[in-house]
Specification:
CATH topology: TIM Barrel
Largest sheet: 8 strands, parallel, barrel
Radius of gyration: 18 Å
Number of helices: 11
Distance between the termini: 29 Å
Bound molecules: 1,3-dihydroxyacetonephosphate
CATH class: Alpha Beta
Number of domains: 1
Oligomer: single chain
CATH architecture: Alpha-Beta Barrel
Strand order of the largest sheet: 1-2-3-4-5-6-7-8
Structural class: alpha/beta
Helix content: 40-55%
């Protein structure tokens, strides 16, 4: 069923876990992520966001994600990831998304506050919750490697975070605490800063860029109030590797369907395993 409201986050926190939020670009990934929710019996979130629309088209991908959520036997959130366009955000809210992220993290602080507050007004009118972001992550949302780790001056400042949450009314806050988009072998979380952020704000925290982060650090982050963990590169890698392995066996018969199925099953397994790891220590 399609998730409604912030209980998907608060229930996870109360149960000592975080919701797995997985980026999706196509039909097979949508199906795989929803299936991982069903095979774990836990809520899951589909990140059908702005950069994914660049590949699949907004209406098509949104329709796929919303339909999969409605048809699922477990709770599935459909979330607009990394949106910087308020018209797009309004479109997704009106289409039935359960949550949206306005990402003003690369803007000057006052612009981020003003535009995120406007996103909150638009979304709350429709009963949709909003994630804001403060502090900037290194790396590209669609690229797997080469990000390097976040410089300390891009990390989220706890005092500013308290001001940001109070002035915007966001329901969840994405933080930059050493996490980066894509695989970055040297990336480590600044757990002390995360503890300070937890003390500074009351809303659930969101950890982007979970691919490749040590499992122990992710679990400690969940113990410090992270309620949603975003994953993208790991699923893309699982998809590609499975298709590469399968390719020689399907080529002689031009059996593309078997190739797509292999990719889908690899994504399901990867998401399933990640969901199982998202528990506090
Ligand atoms: P990764 O690609 O590092 O998993 O990051 C995903 C993400 O944060 C999507 O918003």
């Amino acid at each position: 069923m399609l998730s409604r409201g912030t209980a998907i986050l608060t229930d996870a926190l109360a149960a000592g876990r975080a919701v797995g939020a997985f980026a999706t670009y196509n039909l097979e990934q949508v199906q795989a992520i929803a299936a991982a929710g069903e095979t774990t019996g836990l809520p899951v979130m589909l990140l059908a966001g702005s950069s994914h629309f660049n590949h699949a088209g907004r209406r098509l991908l949104a329709t796929l994600a919303l339909t999969a959520a409605q048809e699922s036997t477990t709770e599935v959130g459909v979330h607009l990831d990394h949106c910087r366009d308020l018209d797009e955000l309004r479109w997704c809210v009106e289409a039935g998304y359960s949550s949206v992220m306005y990402d003003g993290s690369h803007d000057p602080y006052e612009d981020n506050v003003a535009r995120t507050a406007e996103a909150v007004r638009i979304a709350h009118d429709h009963g949709v919750w909003v994630e804001g972001e403060l502090g900037a992550l290194a790396g590209d949302e669609d690229v797997t490697t080469g990000a390097g780790s976040g410089a300390p001056d891009t990390m989220t400042d706890p005092v500013q975070a308290a001001d940001f949450v109070a002035r915007t009314g966001v329901d969840a806050l994405a933080v930059a605490v050493g996490n980066v988009h894509g695989f970055a072998p040297d990336a480590h979380l600044d757990l002390e800063r995360l503890a300070d952020l937890r003390a500074a704000v009351t809303v659930p925290l969101v950890l982007h860029g979970a691919s490749g982060l040590p499992e122990k650090e992710i679990r400690e982050a969940i113990g410090l109030g992270v309620a949603k963990v975003n994953v993208n590169a790991e699923l893309r890698r699982a998809y590609l590797h499975a298709m590469t392995e399968e390719l020689p066996t399907v080529l002689p018969a031009d059996d593309a369907v078997r190739l797509w199925r292999a990719g889908r099953e690899a994504v399901r397994r990867s998401a399933h395993d990640t969901i199982g790891q998202l528990v506090r220590p």
